[in-house]
Every structure is written in structure tokens, then in C-alpha cells.
Design goal:
The complex is a heterodimer of chains A (324) and B (334). With 324 residues, chain A is an all-alpha fold. In chain A, 74% of the residues lie in helices and 2% in strands. In chain A, helix 5 packs antiparallel against helix 11 and helix 13 (273-293) packs antiparallel against helix 14. The longest helix of chain B has 28 residues, at 2-29. The chains are: A mainly alpha (324), B alpha/beta (334).
Chain lengths: 324, 334
Amino acid sequence: MGKRRASFLSYKASFTFIVFVILVVFFSFFTPNHTFVGSNNIGALGKLIPDLGIISLGVGILMIAGEFDMSVASIIPVSSFVFINLLAWNVPLIITFILTLMVGIALGTINGFLVVKTGIPSFIATLGTMMFWKGVVFAASRMMPIGLRAYLEPGSTLENVLTGTIGGYFPLQFLWFLIISIVLLLFLHIHKFGNWIYVTGDNKNAARAMGINTDMVKIVSYVLVGFLCSFMSVMQTLRIESFTATQGSGYGLKAIASAVVGGTSLTGGVGSLPGILLGTLTIQILENGLILLGAPVFGINAFIGAGIVIFAILNVLAERFRTR
Amino acid sequence: MKRSKIFKIIVLVTVLSLAFIIPTLSMAKTPKKPAAGMYFRLVTHGGNDPFWAVVQKGMRDASDLLGCRADIDLCGGNLALQQKRFAEAVAMRPDGIALVINDDKAWDKPVSDAIKKGINVIGINNDDSKGAAGNARLCYIGQDDRRAGYVIARRLFAVAKRKGWYMGNLKVAAAVEVPGANYGNFRSEGIRKAMKEFGINSKLDIIDAGGLEMTTVESRITSYLIAHPNTKVLFGLGGICTDRLTSALKNAGKRPGQVVAGGFDTAPGTLSGLKTGYVEATVDQQQYLQGYFAIMTLYLMKKYGFAPNIDTGGYLVDKNNISTIQKYSPMHIR
């Protein structure tokens, strides 16, 4: 029994899992009228969680590879802007969708090359590209919102597939979030490329000595983040029915926080897809649950901040168990 | 080969010459605009949101008309950054500055110092709570936020009353993007004043919507509505919160009219809410005019010393007059 517990606790995301379960149980019982598990709240969470969730998955994997991407906050509005403008130019919807995804891939590639070829710390390099692309999208859009419905009638196939519901209740956004999580889980933990990501993040020189093209590993990780940003951006644009220049604001740091809460190391080489998934779910239900509990209006951010620090401490404890 | 090269050079020289000559010719034909050579700057606390995009459009249209140059600083609610931008603007010695006076103390000395240096400073969008008595700014162009809050609140409470709801303990909430910012505080004051008039004794719940990001705002308003299912009247105190009201109400399982909702500005989501009946009304503070009249006033002030106070706000938009907004919204004027 004791051995089994030690084995569970030695898993990196174990504390996140325990806290996640405790939070779910706590909020389920103690929110007034059990609203946390009410159909409206579950439906709303299913619709809203994937936005940050999808970004966190990509950012978390990139962190395992030893790098950061602050530019997600700009790739999202750039993608949304391109998506709506292509529709305004009467480009067919499916081609618009594909081209928008390619924008994310292109911006991710630029980030990747910038980081690996110049040797600039990724935090600074992507902070720079974040500001650059944000400036470009502000200038191009003049910060004006653009309503989607002028160019796309409700009920398109893409909209139904990305943001519809199953049985009029289960939001497809969450299904996409789960599908992406499973694909990335296989990619990170089953495919050999996943091993390369871990080795690259843990010890780049050792990885190179093993014959791994660490530059390629990092560039692919950045491309993945860019792709996920564009995918989420299209999903979000279809849901909120407009482009706004503020889309994605603050997502860079929130995604990093989600990954850290899920046991991802800031120095690379450590983390897991289930951990990142749990991290982003935990951060978002923490906010939701606190509001449902009636936490002081202006104190929500303080609770979330404290929660992140506590998770970081718990992960250090988990690391000690792991290395015992 | 040689002839071909010479030909290419001739073509290149011709094209370059035309590129320089044509604009010069067109400039020569255009009469000099009245404010040519002047430079004005708008220093604001605004963010990269739809509201300020329209202010910017007004500013640009006026400066194009007058032939002057103008820039706008958007400081995202960061007062320290806004003060830095103001100091930089003063150092540039422009022909006038329009400033969002979003703090009753912080702007007293900077504005007074700038005016002493001979730079005209006017207030836009937000004013000192004591007006001219509280700040040396030369005039103010913008909406009276207290009055705007009062106007929209009266409209929503009147609808609630018509529905036969008991007003004494009516549950009223207001979501704000930047808690503590003057716009939210002043609009809330207007709402509270209307609450008293309608005999509503409950307190106004303020929802911290968590910033300018749409999903966060929607998520927080949704959570609040689910936690407080007895909410009857809901305000968005800013444009982004009002934009997200409809989605949040839908997420919380509310039908149109089940919660009487309204707020400020005319973002796409707000217009959609007005059409579907989730949003009862919204106040258009006609912020285009704040950018437009800021430039016009600074020009007239520089040239003739005019200093008019202009109230741009309080225009109530509902399903009956939404067509005007929809007509001009794509042009980023309303």
C-alpha cells in the first residue's frame, strides 16, 4: 500500500491531480445549490475552457523543449484578423480556414528560427515578436472590431463542426480540446519525437551528442504552438462572432502558469501532457469555482495568484518524491 | 545588348522621375489646409479595444480635414505609463494635447506645468471629478459618465418595473473590465442614483470581469450569473463587458428579457444582443466626436483661443434606432 502511494506521488502531475480532484469535490459540494456541477455551468465551462486550454497544451510542450512563447497573445488576433479579412475577400471558407492555419504555422516557424538561429533567449525573442505582430495587427485593423456576420452566415459547416454542440448541449469545442490532447499525448509520450523534446529540453548538448537535431525539435515545437493558436483563434472568432484586437490578451503568461501548475518545469525537460491538461483545467475551474462561491469581487486574482504559488510548491514536493 | 541596357536605364529614370514628380504636382494643385504643419497628440488611458479605435478614427478624420498631424497614445489603463507618455508629449512641444484625466490628483501638476510652458491641454473622455475646479485643463470634451450611467439605469429599471418585478430588493449587478477605473466608478454612481429613485434598496454588485480579453470577461460574467440566478438587472460598464452580456446570459441559461441587460458602446456583440432581445439598450457616448472635436478644438484654440466644453454622450441605442448604428458601424464612426 505504502509502496503504491509512493509510486503515485512520484508521478510529476500527482499533486495537480489530487488538488484538481479536491477542488472539483469541494466546489461540487460547497457552491450554493451545487451550481458548479449544474448543467449551465458545465456547459459554459465546456465552451470556454478550450480557448486557453488548447494554447496551454502547445506552450507546455514547448516549455518541455526548454523554450517559451510569449507571442501567442499576438498570433491569436493576427489569425483572427486574417480569417475575417479573407472571408471579406470572398475566399471560400475552407480555404480561408486552411490559410489561417498556415499563418499560425508561418509565425511559429519565424519564432522558431529566430530563437534557434540567433541564440536570443526565447522569452525575449518572442516578447519582441509578440509586440511586433501586435503592432502590425493594430495598425492593419486600426483596432476596429470586425463583425463576422457581415461575411459569414450562421450555420456554416465549419462553424457547426468547430463550435456546434452534440445533442444541443455538449460543446464541440471541448471535444476538439480532448482530441487535440489525445493526439499530443501520443505525440509526446509514444512517438520518438516526444523523447527528443524531453532530451532537448533537459540537456541540449547531450541531445546533440545523441544525434538529435535540437534546432529542428525546437522549431517544430514553435510551429505546433503557432498552429494551435490559429486553430483556437478560428474557433474563438466563430464563437464570439467578431475579430477584436484584444483576443488572446494575457494568454502567454496564463498558458505558462497552466503548464507550471501541471508540473512542467520552467527550465525544460520535465512535464507531461496529462499534467498540462490538468493544470489548465485546474486554473480555470479555480476561477470559476471561486466566483460561484461568492469570493470577494476584487480578490479573485489574488486567490488565483496564491493558487499558482501553492501549486509550484507542491510540484517541488512531488519532484522530491520522484527523485527519492 | 547595349541598346537594351540603355533602354532599361531610360525606363527606370522615367519611372523614378514620375514617382517624384506626380506627388509634387498633385501637392502643388492642392490648396494648403488650415492646420498644415500643426501637430496634436491624444494621451489616453485607453486600451486596444473597439472603443478607442473609433476615437482614433474621429481623430484621423479631423486631422485629414485640417491637414495637421496627430497621434494617439493608448496606455492600457497603466497610469504610470500614461504619465510618461504625457511627459514625452510635452517634451515634443506639440500645438496641443488632449488628455484623458482619469485621476483626480495625478494630473493636477503635469497639466498645470504644461499649460505654463505654453502648451494647450484639454480633457477628453474622462474629466476631473470637480471639473475645471479640480484640474487646470482648458476645457473638456466627452461624456458625463455619471449622467450616462444614470440614463441607462433609468431605462433598464423602468423595464424591470413594467415587468411587475418587486423593486425593493431587485438584484442588480454591473461588470467592469478595469475595476477601480474612473469610468466604471462614475457610471456606477449614476446607476446607484437611479436605484435610489426607483426605490431599490439592495446594493449594486460589481463583477471584476478580469480585463479586456473576451473569453475571460465572458467566463466571469457567466460564473456570476450562475452563482446569482436571482440577478434581474445586469450592466456592462464598458464596451467589452457589454459585448459579452448576450453570450454570458445564454451560457447561464437565460432567455431574452429574463434578465434586463444593457450597458455602453456599440460593439458587434452588443448590436447582436439588441437584435435578439438579450440587450435592452446601450449608451453610445459617440466617442468618434471625442477624437474629432479634440483635434478641431485644439486647432481652434491654437488659432483663435476658443475653449468650448462639449458633451458628446448619452445617446441611447435600442432596437428602434439600431439601424443608424448598423449603417455607420462598418465605417467605424458609430
